[in-house]
Design a protein that fits this description.
By secondary structure, the chain is mainly alpha-helical. The protein has helices spanning about 30-35, 40-45, 50-55, 75-100, 100-130, 135-145, 145-180, 185-200, 205-230, 245-260, 265-270, 280-305, 320-355, 365-385, 390-420, 425-460; strands at about 5-10, 15-20. It is a multi-pass membrane protein.
Length: about 475
């Protein structure tokens, strides 16, 4: 290939990867980065790349009008931060209110560490199968055509639900800032239109600059909220531990899982890296930022807002501070949804036009097709946002159905697939086999129990909420 895209392990010099027509070979014994992915390299050592190159969604970009593989690792890291942190951090103080300070912090930190490992496994799978661009491609590798349809359908549903949750948050924000200045449906339509416009770029490289604005936005909003609740509610009661009903407690756990729910898009992000072997840098940048921010924001806001902390958390401050915080949060509310919308649209676009000139053309027809795709997806997301108007219930449903698998369960399956037949090769291998089997089981358990918990909450709140497709103020729920 004429581009600098390299397949194989995470080595800067390409010694663990392969180019056209070559087979995968392990890197030199002294390669530090090779050692970090030795399991993957062994699993990939017998796989030829000719098929992978042929099926690569972007192909040879040397003469392309639209080039996709242009992101540096820090740009990918910023996109991952913008995609992951926005909505997730808004619900975490209420998690501590549901389960107590100590259990909540342990859960946030523990699930964050586990999410780092599962994200790393996704990178291993991508290095072993470089043509994988999304979860559907991974399903095809593991289970054939049925796997592609199941994984692809689940990915699309998950991304559309996330897009819907961002439209919902946008309407909550507008109701807060304007003191319910007009019908809530009008606000959600405005959020829909802004999201469509911001989703127009076809490459993640262009979106990455928006992600920087999103990162600054969420930090500013959270800082203002922490300062605001500290000034206005200094004597709020907090509980180190707390007895809670099963359904509310587990719904709180699913909200933490949603906070780490960016994994569904990681294959797409790696695919547009200029040097895919730098993906671990992006991952560690993300996980270092999100885990630390989640813990700090959750503790501080819960400490001062107490058991009545709002979800989203930006509503926990006084009316004035809440309006300011929401105003500053507008970029991250929009951009984080746009990134998920971009990944969803890219899945459809790549699946339809993979291997054709349409992928690399900057024509009006290509732009028109992209516009139609994003418009349809955002319309569906808007309908979901209007149909499930309670923020925490929507997060719980999304996490139970999808994040449980994409963030945790499937990564365990990926590792077991990569290392099939080698589970007892060494003590370390046996430990990792057990760990990944447990991770798979965790994903299954969270899905089943989480569906029960979120279903119970939706049924309960349906009796007290303002209802679906209504003009009522949703910032008070």
């Amino acid at each position: 290939m004429a581009s600098n895209y390299r397949h194989g392990g995470y080595a800067d010099d390409g010694t663990t990867g392969a180019t056209n027509g070559q087979t995968y070979q392990p890197g030199p014994a002294g390669s530090d980065e090779r050692n970090s992915l030795s399991d993957t390299e062994k699993a990939a050592a017998v796989k030829p790349t000719s098929s992978a190159d042929k099926n690569d969604p972007f192909g040879d970009e040397s003469n392309s009008e639209v080039k996709y593989r242009t992101m540096h690792w820090w740009q990918a890291g910023m996109i991952m931060i913008a995609e992951t942190i926005s909505l997730g951090i808004l619900s975490l103080p209420s998690v501590l209110a549901a389960v107590g300070l100590v259990p909540g912090v342990i859960l946030i930190a523990g699930l964050g560490i586990l999410a780092t490992y599962t994200g790393y496994v996704i990178g291993q799978f991508k290095m072993a199968y470089p043509h994988v661009h999304n979860m559907a491609d991974a399903g095809m590798v593991m289970l054939g055509p049925w796997g592609r349809e199941i994984f692809g359908g689940a990915q699309m549903l998950f991304l559309i639900f996330i897009m819907g949750s961002h439209i919902l948050t946008f309407s909550i924000m507008m109701n807060t800032v304007t003191a319910h200045g007009t019908c809530t449906i009008v606000f959600s339509v405005v959020g829909f239109l802004i999201s469509v416009v911001c989703s127009l770029p076809r490459t993640l490289h262009k979106v990455s600059y928006l992600s920087i604005v999103s990162f600054i936005s969420i930090i500013g909003a959270v800082l203002i909220t922490m300062i605001g609740v500290g000034v206005s509610k200094p004597d709020a009661h907090v509980d180190a531990t707390l007895k809670s009903g099963f359904a509310p407690a587990f719904l709180a756990v699913t909200n933490i899982i949603f906070a780490y729910a960016g994994h569904v898009a990681f294959f797409s992000f790696i695919s547009e890296l200029h040097t895919p072997t730098h993906y671990p840098r992006s991952l560690f940048l993300l996980q270092g930022c999100d885990t630390s921010m989640y813990i700090i924001a959750a503790i501080v806001i819960y400490r001062y807002a107490g058991a009545d902390v709002a979800s989203p958390a930006l509503g926990s401050a006084s009316t004035t501070v809440s309006k300011v915080a929401y105003g500053i949060a507008i970029p991250t509310i929009v951009i984080a949804g746009v990134i998920n919308g971009h990944v969803a649209a890219k899945y459809i676009y790549v699946r339809k036009y993979r291997g054709t000139d349409r992928m690399s053309k900057a024509s009006w027809s290509s732009f028109g097709i992209w516009l139609i795709i994003i418009s349809v997806l955002w319309t569906i997301a808007w309908i979901i946002a209007e149909a499930i108007p309670v923020f925490n219930d929507l997060l719980g449903l999304i996490s139970a159905l999808f994040a449980s698998w994409f963030t945790y369960g499937l990564s365990g399956a990926f590792w077991l697939f990569l290392n099939k037949g080698r589970y007892r090769e060494s003590g370390r291998k046996m430990f990792l086999t057990g760990l990944n089997f447990v991770i798979f089981c965790i994903g299954a358990a969270i899905c089943g129990i989480g569906l029960y918990a979120s279903g119970t909450a939706i049924n309960k709140d349906a009796k007290t909420s303002n209802g679906s497709f209504t003009c009522a103020d949703n910032s008070k729920e």
